[in-house]
Amino acid sequence: MQHAVGGWGQVPGAPQGWTEPTGHVALPPVAPTPGVPGAGGPLGQAPGRPVVQPTGHTTLAVLLIGPAGAGKTTVARHWAASRAVPTAHISLDDVREWVCSGFADPQAGWNDHSEAQYRLARRTCGFAARNFLANGISCIVDDAVFPDRPVVGLGGWKRHVGPALLPVVLLPGLEIVLERNAERSGNRRLSDEEVARIHGRMAGWYGSGLPIIDNSHLDVESTARALDEALARAIASPPRW
Description:
Number of helices: 7
Helix content: 25-40%
Order of helices and strands: EEEHEHHEHEHHEH
CATH topology: Rossmann fold
Number of strands: 7
Shape: globular
Number of domains: 1
CATH superfamily: P-loop containing nucleotide triphosphate hydrolases
Distance between the termini: 27 Å
CATH architecture: 3-Layer(aba) Sandwich
CATH class: Alpha Beta
């Protein structure tokens, strides 16, 4: 298997001074799936999922960025399930909501408690991602990372996951995210004003050099393919960030 990531557990090339080792678990080899790239046949069909894999058998660490309603979690899960090699998906919001009693909901007001729980969730996601990667399993994490707020910036994710992290921005039009947000329920649903504010701040990623996908008129499968193509380009020519 080709590897594009280093710096986790006992993987060669770990950064100097790395102080948070991960455990290596001896996993059994994965049998090739017939009819998928790299498995001796043409592009085929995984059970229940179309295969999208210009990235081949590369082990990847991916951060999918986008505003509420961009479809990050749905696309990340589809991309992970569509690969022909072991791939994990971690949703920051899911991890944050592991806190049942004492959950600090930012919708009730951004404060020290909600910020601390976001920090903790990101560290937890980072540790989980490094553990998967140390065991040869690719990982995609989705999060609403703001370009103008250092506390939730790319630097933190790079520290948490590792130096080879590949960030991609999913940024459909405002009217699309408003429609998708309206279909949500519970604490995942935001006010229209908050959605518009978040979307406006996300526009700061334009000009950043990161790959940006406008999935306003793409379905989930097409967006997952666009994501994989963007990652293939990033592997060949890593963005500077």
